[in-house]
Amino acid sequence: MKISVDDIPESGLSVDLSADGKNIEALAKGKLDFSVNSPVTAHLNLTKAGGGVYVAGSLKTRIRYNCGRCLKEFELNLNADFSVFYIRGKEDGREPELKAAEMDVQYFDGTELDTDEILLAQLALEMPMQQLCKPDCLGLCPKCGSDLNLGACKCANESRADPRFAKLKDFKVK
Ligand SMILES: [Zn+2]
Ligand SMILES: [Zn+2]
After folding, report:
1. Buried b (16+ CB within 10 A) or exposed e, 103-122
2. Total domain count for the chain?
3. Which of 5, 35, 105, 113 counts the highest number of beta carbons within 10 A?
4. What's the pTM value of the predicted model, to 2 decimals?
Protein backbone atom coordinates (compact mmCIF):
# COMPACT_ATOMS: atom_id res chain seq x y z
CA MET A 1 0.00 0.00 0.00
CA LYS A 2 1.33 3.41 -0.97
CA ILE A 3 0.60 6.33 1.29
CA SER A 4 1.07 9.81 -0.07
CA VAL A 5 2.40 12.29 2.47
CA ASP A 6 -0.19 14.80 1.23
CA ASP A 7 -2.94 12.39 2.27
CA ILE A 8 -1.80 12.30 5.90
CA PRO A 9 -3.95 14.77 7.82
CA GLU A 10 -2.35 16.99 10.46
CA SER A 11 -4.04 14.87 13.11
CA GLY A 12 -2.27 11.78 11.78
CA LEU A 13 -3.36 8.68 9.93
CA SER A 14 -4.07 5.27 11.36
CA VAL A 15 -3.86 2.25 9.04
CA ASP A 16 -4.57 -1.42 9.55
CA LEU A 17 -3.29 -3.69 6.84
CA SER A 18 -2.36 -7.18 5.86
CA ALA A 19 0.56 -7.37 3.46
CA ASP A 20 1.44 -10.35 1.32
CA GLY A 21 4.63 -11.90 2.70
CA LYS A 22 5.78 -12.82 -0.80
CA ASN A 23 5.61 -9.19 -1.92
CA ILE A 24 7.77 -8.19 1.00
CA GLU A 25 10.27 -10.92 0.17
CA ALA A 26 10.36 -9.78 -3.44
CA LEU A 27 11.19 -6.23 -2.30
CA ALA A 28 14.22 -7.56 -0.45
CA LYS A 29 15.59 -8.99 -3.72
CA GLY A 30 16.92 -12.14 -2.09
CA LYS A 31 18.71 -10.31 0.70
CA LEU A 32 16.62 -11.85 3.48
CA ASP A 33 17.90 -15.05 5.03
CA PHE A 34 14.39 -16.06 6.05
CA SER A 35 11.12 -16.41 4.23
CA VAL A 36 7.82 -14.72 4.97
CA ASN A 37 5.19 -17.29 4.12
CA SER A 38 2.35 -15.73 6.05
CA PRO A 39 0.71 -12.39 5.55
CA VAL A 40 2.18 -9.60 7.64
CA THR A 41 -0.58 -7.93 9.59
CA ALA A 42 0.23 -4.52 10.89
CA HIS A 43 -1.15 -1.45 12.52
CA LEU A 44 0.54 1.82 11.65
CA ASN A 45 0.13 5.34 12.98
CA LEU A 46 1.60 7.95 10.67
CA THR A 47 2.19 11.52 11.75
CA LYS A 48 3.79 14.32 9.79
CA ALA A 49 6.67 15.86 11.69
CA GLY A 50 9.42 18.24 10.66
CA GLY A 51 9.28 17.49 6.95
CA GLY A 52 9.25 13.75 7.54
CA VAL A 53 6.80 11.16 8.72
CA TYR A 54 6.88 9.54 12.11
CA VAL A 55 5.62 5.95 11.94
CA ALA A 56 4.72 4.01 15.06
CA GLY A 57 3.17 0.62 14.83
CA SER A 58 3.18 -3.06 15.40
CA LEU A 59 3.43 -6.06 13.12
CA LYS A 60 2.74 -9.72 13.34
CA THR A 61 3.72 -12.57 11.04
CA ARG A 62 5.21 -16.03 10.86
CA ILE A 63 8.57 -16.55 9.28
CA ARG A 64 10.58 -19.57 8.26
CA TYR A 65 14.35 -19.82 8.52
CA ASN A 66 17.17 -22.33 8.57
CA CYS A 67 19.34 -22.69 11.63
CA GLY A 68 22.76 -21.20 10.90
CA ARG A 69 24.51 -24.20 12.44
CA CYS A 70 22.46 -27.36 11.87
CA LEU A 71 20.59 -26.01 8.81
CA LYS A 72 17.29 -27.43 9.99
CA GLU A 73 14.20 -25.46 9.08
CA PHE A 74 12.24 -23.64 11.74
CA GLU A 75 9.21 -21.43 11.98
CA LEU A 76 8.89 -18.50 14.28
CA ASN A 77 6.02 -16.22 15.24
CA LEU A 78 7.20 -12.67 15.08
CA ASN A 79 5.53 -9.82 16.93
CA ALA A 80 7.16 -6.45 16.97
CA ASP A 81 6.40 -2.92 18.06
CA PHE A 82 8.39 -0.22 16.42
CA SER A 83 8.70 3.48 15.84
CA VAL A 84 10.69 4.95 13.03
CA PHE A 85 11.16 8.40 11.56
CA TYR A 86 11.07 8.60 7.77
CA ILE A 87 12.96 11.54 6.41
CA ARG A 88 13.43 12.85 2.92
CA GLY A 89 16.75 11.93 1.43
CA LYS A 90 18.90 9.29 -0.11
CA GLU A 91 20.86 6.57 1.56
CA ASP A 92 24.26 8.16 1.08
CA GLY A 93 25.81 6.75 4.21
CA ARG A 94 25.54 10.01 6.10
CA GLU A 95 24.48 9.65 9.68
CA PRO A 96 21.39 11.70 10.29
CA GLU A 97 21.58 14.06 13.24
CA LEU A 98 18.60 12.41 14.85
CA LYS A 99 20.74 9.36 15.46
CA ALA A 100 21.86 10.92 18.70
CA ALA A 101 18.35 10.53 20.03
CA GLU A 102 18.56 6.80 19.29
CA MET A 103 15.60 7.02 17.02
CA ASP A 104 15.37 4.64 14.13
CA VAL A 105 15.64 6.65 10.92
CA GLN A 106 14.83 5.56 7.40
CA TYR A 107 14.86 7.50 4.17
CA PHE A 108 12.14 7.96 1.59
CA ASP A 109 11.54 10.14 -1.44
CA GLY A 110 9.61 12.68 0.59
CA THR A 111 6.31 12.22 -1.20
CA GLU A 112 5.15 8.66 -0.80
CA LEU A 113 5.63 5.85 1.70
CA ASP A 114 5.27 2.20 0.76
CA THR A 115 3.91 0.14 3.63
CA ASP A 116 5.60 -3.00 2.26
CA GLU A 117 8.95 -1.21 2.51
CA ILE A 118 8.20 -0.07 6.05
CA LEU A 119 7.38 -3.65 7.07
CA LEU A 120 10.40 -5.09 5.29
CA ALA A 121 12.74 -2.68 7.10
CA GLN A 122 11.25 -3.68 10.45
CA LEU A 123 11.39 -7.41 9.74
CA ALA A 124 15.05 -7.12 8.73
CA LEU A 125 15.76 -5.29 11.99
CA GLU A 126 13.93 -7.84 14.08
CA MET A 127 15.93 -10.79 12.82
CA PRO A 128 19.41 -11.18 14.26
CA MET A 129 22.26 -11.80 11.82
CA GLN A 130 22.58 -15.49 12.48
CA GLN A 131 19.50 -17.49 13.25
CA LEU A 132 19.95 -20.51 15.47
CA CYS A 133 17.36 -23.12 16.38
CA LYS A 134 18.51 -22.75 20.00
CA PRO A 135 21.39 -20.75 21.52
CA ASP A 136 23.46 -23.86 22.20
CA CYS A 137 22.82 -25.66 18.91
CA LEU A 138 25.72 -28.05 18.37
CA GLY A 139 25.52 -27.86 14.60
CA LEU A 140 26.78 -30.41 12.14
CA CYS A 141 29.93 -32.47 12.36
CA PRO A 142 32.43 -30.88 9.96
CA LYS A 143 33.62 -34.36 8.97
CA CYS A 144 30.53 -36.49 8.40
CA GLY A 145 27.77 -33.90 8.48
CA SER A 146 25.68 -35.58 11.18
CA ASP A 147 23.47 -33.42 13.32
CA LEU A 148 25.34 -33.35 16.64
CA ASN A 149 22.16 -32.32 18.48
CA LEU A 150 20.96 -35.89 17.96
CA GLY A 151 24.04 -37.33 19.60
CA ALA A 152 27.74 -37.72 18.97
CA CYS A 153 28.77 -39.19 15.63
CA LYS A 154 31.47 -41.78 14.98
CA CYS A 155 34.07 -39.08 14.45
CA ALA A 156 33.72 -38.07 18.12
CA ASN A 157 35.82 -41.03 19.26
CA GLU A 158 38.59 -40.20 16.82
CA SER A 159 39.71 -36.63 17.18
CA ARG A 160 36.95 -34.35 18.31
CA ALA A 161 38.54 -33.53 21.63
CA ASP A 162 36.84 -30.72 23.48
CA PRO A 163 39.27 -27.76 23.53
CA ARG A 164 38.37 -27.10 27.16
CA PHE A 165 39.71 -30.52 28.12
CA ALA A 166 42.75 -30.10 25.90
CA LYS A 167 43.71 -27.19 28.11
CA LEU A 168 43.23 -29.24 31.23
CA LYS A 169 45.63 -31.83 29.91
CA ASP A 170 48.44 -29.29 29.96
CA PHE A 171 47.68 -28.30 33.49
CA LYS A 172 50.12 -29.93 35.84
CA VAL A 173 49.82 -30.06 39.58
CA LYS A 174 52.99 -28.89 41.26
ZN1 LIG B 1 20.45 -25.75 14.96
ZN1 LIG C 1 31.08 -36.87 12.38
Report:
1. eebbebeeeebebbbbbbbb
2. 2
3. 113
4. 0.75
